[in-house]
Write a structure and sequence with these properties.
There is one protein chain. The chain starts with a helix and ends with a strand. The protein has one domain. A hairpin with a 2-residue loop joins strand 1 and strand 2. A five-stranded mixed β-sheet has the order 1-2-3-4-5. The chain is α+β, with helices and mostly antiparallel strands.
């Protein structure tokens, strides 16, 4: 009798585990964000890029990802002009054209070092002063 009870319990337990469906994970599709470069200047050894995002962001990770993409594209654009020299790339982020016009740096800025040392050529992270609006 004891063996039958234990077998019935194990069978019921197995049946319960088999019938459980795994939770479907929430998959967030990446959203394409179009940004507008309102100003891009090169003065001396400093490249300044002023970008209007036009969307509301909820995390600093999203903001950082956008900034890294802008920096990479700007670096590639000016690669021949840079030609192994040291530069600073500054990316300023704004929520709207009105904020850009008012010089209200909504999302902060991020500095990147270009060709900082011979051992560290190319684009590298600098000062991160990003913030959420």
């Amino acid at each position: 009798m004891r063996k039958i009870t234990i077998l019935l319990f194990i069978f019921t337990l197995l049946l319960g585990l088999i019938s459980c469906k795994p939770a479907v994970p929430t998959v967030l599709e990446p959203e394409d964000i179009t940004v507008q470069v309102f100003s891009e200047t090169v003065v001396g050894q400093v490249i300044s890029v002023h970008v209007v995002l036009g969307v509301e962001l909820s995390t600093l990770d999203e903001l950082l990802e956008i900034t890294l993409s802008i920096a990479s594209q700007t670096y590639e654009k000016h690669f021949e002009m840079i030609d192994g020299r040291q530069f600073t790339l500054r990316v300023y982020l704004y929520a709207s054209e009105a904020h850009f016009t008012a010089n209200n740096n909504t999302y902060g800025y991020h500095n990147f070092n270009i060709n900082q040392t011979l051992e560290n050529p190319g684009l590298s992270l600098g000062t991160n002063a990003l913030k959420l609006a």
